[in-house]
Amino acid sequence: MARQIQFTQTGGPEVLKVAEVEPRDPGAGEIRIANRAIGLNFIDIYIRSGLYPTELPSGLGTEGAGVVDAVGEEVEDFVEGDRVAYAMGPLGAYADFITMDAAKAIALPEAIDFEAAAGGMLKGLTVQYLTRQTYAIGEGETIVFHAAAGGVGSIACQWAHALGAHAIGTVSNEDKASIAHQNGAWMTIDTTRESVPERVRELTDGAMVPVVYDSVGKDTWTDSLACLSRRGLMVSFGNASGAVEGVNLVDLNKGGSLFVTRPSLAGYADTRVRFEMMCADLFAVLESGEVKINIGQRFALEDAGQAQRALANRETTGSTILTV
Ligand SMILES: NC(=O)c1ccc[n+]([C@@H]2O[C@H](COP(=O)([O-])OP(=O)(O)OC[C@H]3O[C@@H](n4cnc5c(N)ncnc54)[C@H](OP(=O)(O)O)[C@@H]3O)[C@@H](O)[C@H]2O)c1
């Protein structure tokens, strides 16, 4: 028997329970992975709380890294004992074992350890598409990235720095500002005591920025639009403070012919070819050392609820992983 975190109703972190389950044998085209480390992501909170509905009862978590433990028929790319990682597995990564479509996993290079993979696959692939595809950041450009000391933000600041860009990162306290600077942010703005658009105006000598990456959502939508230069792009990619609602297109007109997109990792890594291309790009910056996955905190698998509470309460920095 093995452990899997499950929930039978949506709600707060207390709905997460440890269940004893028999790990499922892989079917055709599937592999079973013995997790060595599991990634914690804000999307797990949206699913647990019911913001993103799912069928219940359900497992939780889509990201992890481990060793292939069993291989189904027709799988050609993996054998038992292979080191692998995944970012978009079926709900159920918060577990000792997970069985999934082999096409959702990728071979993990020796230079990348299990914790870095579990803490960096989903967030790193997200930063890959945000900064290299949604808006390809150019050398010397200035950008705004919200929650700069968080999991996605820490990777984004390092990657933007590697691309030669000036990242203005928003944070909510001095410790987080210092973390963002260590990760290569050019400037930080403390959202608890500064106006983001005013500071962006000062820092850019009135030019404002061509792109804002906003994962905070509801609380920052209006200010983020106000940071954009003419024809700038608002990348709204998360709802940490709540979902953005009631968007008025006239605001985009008034703001200077602005663009808006609401992307997802699944929308970019939607084919095996694209997934492999994005993984190769991510693994290259990890192996070169240009980007490091900072594991800010580790929780035991059975403390997944506590880990989610810390993430939702803005108490974490960098990536958070569950250990098995
Ligand atoms: N669309 C996609 O493809 C995609 C993929 C991955 C992640 N995401 C999104 O990216 C964001 C970051 O994910 P993550 O897992 O790396 O989390 P995280 O950034 O480590 O944590 C969220 C951070 O958001 C900030 N925040 C601002 N207002 C908040 C509020 N009311 N409640 C909670 N946090 C608030 C906090 O930083 P401060 O205290 O410094 O403000 C907090 O630490 C999430 O919104 C997630 O949904 C989107």
* Poorly predicted ranges: none
The sequence of SSEs as H and E is EEEHEEEEEHEHEHEHEHEHEHHEHE
Q: Largest sheet, if any?
A: 7 strands, mixed
Work out the radius of gyration.
Answer: 20 Å
Helix content: 25-40%
Compute the separation of the termini in Å. Answer: 14 Å
Counted beta strands: 16
How is the quaternary structure best described? Answer: single chain
Shape: globular
Quick structural gist:
With 324 residues, this protein is α/β, with parallel strands linked by helices.
Could you explain how this protein is built, in words?
The protein is of the alpha/beta class and 324 residues long. The chain is 31% helix and 27% strand. The chain has 10 helices and 16 strands. Strands 3, 5, 6, 7, 8, 15 and 16 form a 7-stranded mixed beta sheet that branches. Strands 11-10-9-12-13-14 form a 6-stranded parallel beta sheet, sandwiched between helices. The chain has a 3-stranded antiparallel beta sheet with strand order 2-1-4, with no helix packed on it. α2 crosses α3 and α2 crosses α9. The radius of gyration is 20 Å and the shape is globular. The two termini are 14 Å apart. The structure holds NADP nicotinamide-adenine-dinucleotide phosphate. NADP nicotinamide-adenine-dinucleotide phosphate (NAP) binds next to α1, α2, α3 and α10. The site of NADP nicotinamide-adenine-dinucleotide phosphate has 31 residues, from α1, α2, α3 and α10.
